[in-house]
Amino acid sequence: MMYFISVVIIIVTTMMFVLFASGETDTNNIVFLKGYGWEVRTKAVEKEDIIIPKPFDRVYENYNDIQLKAGLDLRPYMGMKGVRYTYIVENYPKDVGEEVRANVICINNEPVGGDIMTVSIHGFIHSLNFDDSLR
């Protein structure tokens, strides 16, 4: 009986940690995005483990150019593991015919990069700068 109670306590504690830890990450990411003028839904629709490559390939060089436009730089994080969170943008200033998404790249639970994009073949990607959406 004691074994069963111990297992239940461990499971409940783990579940509470996961629920509250992800909520804190969402809150940090939402505040980060709000700093660029974006309003997003309160829960990430995707979460994916990533590794920032070392060295950058051509794709990541181009992606880092997008980061630099927003005052960010992924070069210090080369070779590090992180997580990409994706949120649905609620205040994109134009109707683009599909959902617009905000990606936030976190290293050690801190936002260090991101982008605004759509997923269609004719979609777009740009920096987190709100002004980039007006072009």
SSE diagram, text form:
Elements lengths: L1 H33 L11 E6 L6 H12 L11 E8 L12 E7 L2 E8 L7 E2 L9
Antiparallel strand pairs: 1-2, 2-3, 3-4, 4-5
Description:
It is a single chain. The longest helix is centred in the N-terminal third of the chain and has 33 residues, at 2-34. The protein is of the alpha+beta class. It starts with a helix and ends in a 9-residue tail after the last strand. It has a 5-stranded antiparallel sheet, with helices on one face. 33% of the residues lie in helices and 23% in strands. Residues 10-21 have low confidence and may be disordered. 21% of the residues are buried. It has helices spanning 2-34, 58-69, and strands at residues 46-51, 81-88, 101-107, 110-117, 125-126. Strand 4 and strand 5 form a beta hairpin. It has 2 helices and 5 strands, in the order H-E-H-E-E-E-E.
In short:
The protein is α+β, with helices and mostly antiparallel strands.
Specify the structural class: alpha+beta
User: How far apart lie the N and C ends?
Assistant: 65 Å
Morphology call:
globular
Level of helix content? Answer: 25-40%
Q: Quick check: average pLDDT?
A: 87
How is the main sheet built?
A: 5 strands, antiparallel
Quickly count the helices: 2
Number of strand elements: 5
Low-confidence stretches: 10-21
Q: Estimate the strand proportion.
A: 15-25%
Largest sheet, order of strands side by side? 1-2-3-4-5
| Pattern of helices and strands | HEHEEEE
Rg value: 18 Å
